[in-house]
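Pair request: fold both.
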Amino acid sequence: MDRSTDDQEKRLTELKKEVLKRGFDRYSSRLKNVSELPIELQSSAVTVRDSHETIQTILVFPPQIQRGWHYVPKQALLFTATGVTHLLASIWPDKEPQVTPLKGCDLMYMKVALLLLYGFLEIVAQGESEPVRLGMEFNTVDWYRLSPPLQCFLEATKVTSDLTLQPADTSSLVTQRAFEELPLKFSNGLRIYGLLPGEKLEEFVFQTATWKRWLYFFQRPVSANTLLSLTSNYMVVIQEELKVKQGWIISYIPRNSITGIQNQPCGLWNELSVRLAQESQSIDYKLKLKSEAVEVWRRQWVQHGGVWEDLPEQQA
């Protein structure tokens, strides 16, 4: 049944008031099986999936208010050995949740933003006819619960996975050089987020933030402090947010999904398009870098057998 815009606004106002009540549960919980899912997150599709593949981890996230006054309904993530399913409750009690299943072997990229108390998880993977995007807002207090199953999900993207999740190799000369040369924040970021279990650092390049003049006396940020690294199985991008320096944005791109990188000069910066494909489906992962960083990354990428294409400069 279709509802009017006014009905939706009234319903959202009611739900927001519930979230603001004293004693309202604000953090995630871990369940033992799908039968324990709240009624808003129960779905026949989940029951069928549970009968075909063992669900290893179930995390339920309560309703939240994020980004000022934006309501986020109740959610859940169901992890198996090979993938993850996202459940998003409807704001209407008589509707089933939105169900988004993704397989690790179909992953194109995963991006995690951890900015103060605001977290955002984005996973893009091959779908039935076009790439599917999973987007989930969460409180970063829950990251300690969310991080381990996400690491296992990334492990499923490898051609040969290691279910024991051995520690990352930090003994190589490249890794030691990175720890010594990088700013302390990004050295720690590489250590904590960039080197996944079992991974070895092969290359890295760091660039400081770039700015452009605005209204003569002011400056506007164009690109953030950015670390690109190449590990055994991933291209990992660690960035700051343009306006919020207290946090991270980490992207994991499986190397086996990268078909090439395109570089297009755009005046003060270059736009890199990392071309990603799974079978017949493709997307681009884009980021901005200065020319000096692009040249270093081009040399490193080509040295490791990657395809690189330079495009004509984009006219303003």
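--- second member of the pair ---
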Amino acid sequence: MTLIDTELSPIPVTIVAGFLGAGKTTLLNHILSAEHGRRIGVLVNDFGSINVDAELINQVEEGMMTLANGCVCCSIRTDLIQAVLQLAERDDPPEHILIESSGVADPAGVYEAFLQTEIRNSVLVDGVITVVDAVHVLGLPDAEAKLARTQVSGGDLIVLNKTDLVDSDTLSNVKDWIREVKPTVQIFDATFGRIPMEVLLGVEHSHESSPGDHTSSAHHHHDLQFETWSYESSEPMNLGLLQQLLNHLPSTLFRAKGFVYAADKPNSRLLLQLVGRRAVLSVDRPWGDSPPQTRLVFIARSETCDFDAIQRVLESCKEVVKSS
């Protein structure tokens, strides 16, 4: 788990990686056109590749497209970081930013670009999602195959696209290849780049439940069944113990996000974002007039996680603040 100090609430950034033709742009087109109620900023390499119905476009100017559903699409010209900051500094900044990585890029290099201390107050990468072409990935020449392996290795979650175009044996072989590269990574089958928003962005946490409530609910999206589970507590958490829990979560639990009330930093609200095995905890802002409270939401494949056991471990992470 990485702990990062920030002065302001950074906008989460998700990098969408994958080899040429895997379906990254198709996936992003789907996000830009969907009615999901979120303001999402999308950065693409080729502005002309975005295929959005004309009636959904509110405004286009200087490489930026504003859409009726609240999303904003921008082209990456020469400076990726500058393009991201341009989005983050808008009067109505997005709630989440998605970046289309170049088809010939190592996502690790893109991720490292966001480790600069001067931009941590504005944006913070929460994870890398790699799109894999089920039809062509096993037939790539050696040099391209090496790059594809690197992209899979750098992904926190894998979207296996075009699964409708291959038979069951080929699909099984592709999944075996992915697991050979990265054994514990979660793989999500997709057609036309369509996957649940919860996989890409996580879920928005409801603030209506009271401290101590622990709930779970199952949701269905196409052929993917998953469930969300929330945890709330008004008692401070020991960060060392919480880190141990995050390092040992089941691999089928693919996203978690929320706020942490930490005994180590009792005056600051900490923001947790977990994608796959990558967990980032950032110092968000002072609690101010809000009562300190840990509020976390976990997303996993349905009936694969023992949330009662996770709850017991979370309870054991609580720590009494020592009076000075």
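Observation on the second member. The radius of gyration is 20 Å.
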